[in-house]
Amino acid sequence: MTAAIYARVSTEDQTTEPQLSQLRRLAPGALEFVDDAISGVRDHRPQLDRLRQAMLRREISEVYVTKVDRLGRSLQMLLRFWDEAEANAVRIVVVDQGIDTGTAAGRFQRNMLAAVAEFERELILERTRVGVERARRSGKRFGRPPKFTEDQRAEIRRRLTAGESSRKVSMALKISDSTVRWIGKGCPAKKSHPRTGPSAPSGHPGPAVRGE
Known about the structure:
Structural class: alpha/beta
CATH class of the domain at 3-112: Alpha Beta
Strand order of the largest sheet: 2-1-3-4-5
Helix content: 40-55%
Radius of gyration: 39 Å
CATH superfamily of the domain at 3-112: Resolvase, N-terminal catalytic domain
Distance between the termini: 135 Å
Number of strands: 5
Mean pLDDT: 83
Number of helices: 7
Low-confidence stretches: none
């Protein structure tokens, strides 16, 4: 079996030597993957990525680390790595915490961590749902904000009702004609009445026609 060791420190003033010394004693001659001055919050790290590729190619059969936080700072990150290892028949040994995924106890610990991660996700979703519902009850609106204010919409409807054409309104307000027509849908347009000549006052006959 080909073993690998992984060590990591987060800052430049730290050293991986204590980790490497401990791991070399447990797995002499193992392939070494070392990330210096790289935060464990980052999912992609140069040497960790190399280790993953080696697992994928089935070049190694077991990985040794001193602590689980060397692999990742979150449960999701850690479980994702363990799932990749399990899919490629790679055993994970976490020395200081006594975890060995090649044993029943180690697999049980892995399943417990997965259950905790699922519980955390459910809590986050529940808190999100409660927060959204509380915000809705207080009148907060979600989604894309409206493009036009109610005052702008009222101005468009007022102009259309007064008899202005949608084209004239669109040019005046610098918006598209189709938008004006959409906002003004259903607005009663002011009707213009045809002009007629003057009529005779009521009760007074028109001028008499003289006969010849």
